């Protein structure tokens, strides 16, 4: 299911399936994209940041067209204890690899990988320098 921003409309709450993973997509060429994500973050329950949120940054192959520094997104990931994936959707190989990574994250978050929880997954994604 896709949404352009949060909060989700409440009139269909009873029909909405359980949310296992929230992927915030940020287009590096658009300042509006980052601002929209930052605004939407306020509508996410704090418990989701324990392994059920990630940031997907697209357009990273065109560094000269960036509207903001990638460090701003890395800081966002650190602030919300959530992984950041950088990709270029125009390249098929990277697009496929990114989709596979997102599906694996979703399987973990949905509880379909025995012995691995969303919370333990986030701790595996952390850099040793974070300590």
UniProtKB/TrEMBL annotation:
Domain of life of the native organism: Eukaryota
Localization per Swiss-Prot or TrEMBL: Chromosome, Centromere; Nucleus
Keywords attached to this entry: Centromere, Chromosome, Nucleus
Chief localization: nucleus
GO annotations of cellular component type: chromosome, centromeric region; nucleus
Entries under Pfam families matching the protein: CENP-M (PF11111)
Keyword Plastid found: no
Protein name: Centromere protein M
């Amino acid at each position: 299911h896709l949404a352009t921003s949060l909060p989700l409309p409440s009139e269909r709450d009873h029909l909405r399936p359980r949310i296992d993973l929230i992927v915030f997509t940020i287009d590096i060429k658009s300042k509006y994209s980052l601002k929209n994500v930052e605004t939407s973050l306020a509508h996410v329950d704090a418990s989701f940041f324990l392994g059920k949120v990630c940031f997907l940054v697209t357009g990273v192959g065109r560094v000269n067209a960036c509207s903001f520094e990638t460090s701003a997104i890395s800081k966002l990931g650190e602030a919300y204890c959530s992984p950041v994936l950088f990709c270029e959707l125009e390249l098929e190989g990277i697009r496929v690899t990114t989709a596979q990574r997102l599906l694996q994250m979703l399987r973990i978050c949905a509880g379909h990988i025995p012995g691995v929880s969303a919370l333990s997954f986030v701790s595996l994604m952390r850099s040793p320098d974070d300590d």
